[in-house]
Specification:
Elements (H helix, E strand, L loop, with lengths): L3 E5 L4 H12 L3 E6 L11 E5 L5 H15 L4 E4 L14 H26 L6 E6 L2 H4 L1 H4 L3 H21 L4 E8 L5 H6 L11 H11 L11 E4 L4
Parallel strand pairs: 1-2, 1-4, 2-3, 4-5, 5-6, 6-7
Helix pairs in contact: 1-8, 2-3, 3-6
The structure holds NADP nicotinamide-adenine-dinucleotide phosphate (NAP).
Amino acid sequence: MKKNIIITGSTGNLGKVSISKFLSEGYRVHALVSKKIGTEISDDLITYEADLTNENSAHEIISGIIREFHTIDAALLLVGGYASGTIANTGSELLKRMISLNFETAYHVAQPVFNQMTTQPEGGRIIFVGSRPALVASDGKNSLAYALSKSLIFKLAEILNAEGKSTNVVSSVIVPSTIDTPENRKAMPNANFSDWVTMDEIVDSIAFLISAKASALRDPVLKLYGKA
Ligand SMILES: NC(=O)c1ccc[n+]([C@@H]2O[C@H](COP(=O)([O-])OP(=O)(O)OC[C@H]3O[C@@H](n4cnc5c(N)ncnc54)[C@H](OP(=O)(O)O)[C@@H]3O)[C@@H](O)[C@H]2O)c1
């Protein structure tokens, strides 16, 4: 039977590469997108449109997937975005925007997905995306709201792992440094691109985390910094 994987942020850099990878690994991919990009593409790739800052929209989509497909084996919660700003110029509006984009979009999907996975005999795997500024204060001082919003992801994963231990639901956090994306190359033209972690490297690590080979891992936090 096909395994079901949910991928949010699936029109983004990491999302597109993840879709190809997990289709090639034989998954049925449920791709959540922020804007309509057409109808169902194939039996194995189904798209759903939702603004994931909206809890009801997220829950409706996840309930629909569960009703029709019964099992969610894995979920990659990739939606997120960056904003710079120090303590001097970070006010409540930016703070709320970053928390909504980087934390609530993950939480709104993780909550129903986690609840479903704890009822499944095989459990399930949830992948969150953190970031280095949330772990290393000196990196976070110039992106304060971003760092704070991503730091919630690590605590959420820890709490879900405490809750999911007896039901084999494991939440992992991957922590990329700068990813080698077209946007980052444009924004930092003088950087040494070969120091950056590639999307393929990240997606290969995700594939490992959700595979049977990683079944002994508990509370995984994977730092994918490349040479940066
Ligand atoms: N790029 C880096 O160097 C880097 C470094 C560390 C961590 N990360 C993290 O890695 C993850 C993926 O990065 P990426 O470069 O692939 O990002 P990306 O290309 O900017 O993609 C983000 C995706 O999220 C979607 N999205 C944004 N707001 C949404 C909303 N309210 N509801 C539903 N979907 C929404 C976007 O759709 P639309 O475009 O249609 O809005 C897009 O598909 C993010 O969590 C990011 O914070 C990135």
